[in-house]
Structure formats: C-alpha cells, structure tokens
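Q: Give me the 3D complex with 2'-deoxycytidine-5'-monophosphate.
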Amino acid sequence: MERNTSEDMATFKIAIDGPAGAGKSTIAKLAARELGIVYVDTGAMYRAIGLATIRAGINPNKDIAEVEELLPQMNIEIAHSEGGQSVFLNGEDVSVEIRLPEVSVAASDVSKIPVVRTKLLELQRNLAEKTDVIMDGRDIGTVVLPNAQLKIFLTASVEERAMRRYRELMEKGVECDFDLVKSDMEYRDKNDSEREIAPLKPAVDSVIVDTTGKNLDESVELIMQIINEARNIG
Ligand code: DC
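A: Here is the predicted complex, encoded as structure tokens.
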C-alpha cells in the first residue's frame, strides 16, 4: 500500500483521522479555508454508498453480496467549493441527505466491505494527487496517505461527541433523541475500530489531540498551531 512518489514530496498533505463526532470535518474545513488548500471529506463518500444501499433496500450489514453487485453502478463524484465539498451519487447532489443518522450507520456498515474500500481508496488518492490537501476520515494517515507530512488523530469522549452531534442535528432541524445518537455513535466506534481492513486507529507517527472540554475555537486554534509548526518544518 505504501507509495512514495515525487509528487508526495512536492505537496503538503495533512491527514486527520478519528472517531465520529470528534470535530474532524468542521476543523479541517476551517483549516483548509485558512490555508487556501483543498479539503476532502472521505466519510461523505462512504455515506453516499450507504445512501445508495438504503435506497436499493439493501441491508449493508447482512447483504454483502448485493452491495458488491450494485457497487459498479454507483458513480461517486466530488466537487470542491471554497473550503467545502459536495458529493454526487450518479449525478445527483446528495450532500444534505447523506447527513441523516440512518445514513451514518449504513456508511459504517458499507465501510467494512473490502471492494467498497478499494473503490474509494482510488478516488481518494486521485483527489490528493498533485495538490496540497487536508483529508479527513478513519484511515487517512494509516492507509490512504501514509506519506502525509502531518497526521492528526482527533478524539474526544463519547459523551461529548454524542452531545455535539445531537446539537448539530437539532440545529439543522433534524429531530432526534440524544440516547439514540449516542448509541449510534458507540455502534460506529466499535464497527470502525474493530473491522479487519483499515480499522480506525492512530498512525504511529500521528499527533493525538483530545478535544474533550475544548470548544470549537480552542480546538481550531490548537490544530492550526500544530499545522503551522509542521509547515514551517516541512
Ligand atoms: O466521517 P463520517 O462520520 O462522515 O464517516 C461515516 C462512516 O464512513 C464512518 O462511520 C466509517 C466510514 N469511513 C471509513 O471507514 N473510512 C474513512 N476514511 C471515512 C469514513
């Protein structure tokens, strides 16, 4: 899996991994805007595939063969706007729909299927080729961009992550129950860290940042400090 091309060397790549609700995408989006570089949210791609399985009436936790059969018909595309990203499933912009709680669980389920990971790995590496990038996910520092100059593993207690996600959903007008949000998060933590391929774990050379008890501004400031130090060295 390791690649070390001259392009890797010429560009600055930042990998941010961590469990659901740690604040990866919010922080990475802000950091990308400040640095003027591309932001890639890889979770959105797994979500698009999760959504496609829900629409097809497939249970991605059980009907693996059906997901594999349908996968070649799923065309996932990413478009970048300033500091943000839109995701398209067979030409349809699904950026809003993929944030629904049931899609989170389906995304975690499809992410255990090897052919799904292979398909998305290629797309993710292509997006990061020849450009400075900040990419977030679960296996960016360990698998997708093993040569990233900076790897951050962002985490926080499950209570706090669930509370952040609950508030985020309520603010968007998605009615939900805190205990359900928390149990979905625990399900995904277990699923994502215990799967056989590319499980969620800090890369050995990552900087571990725990944002429990920190608000967004404090977390962003800390991450920006780490990024700026790494860029000065790199
Ligand atoms: O980052 P997110 O919560 O939007 O991701 C949704 C799911 O996708 C997550 O529970 C696991 C999977 N995922 C993954 O397996 N690998 C990644 N690089 C990103 C996400």
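A quick observation: The chain has a mean pLDDT of 92.
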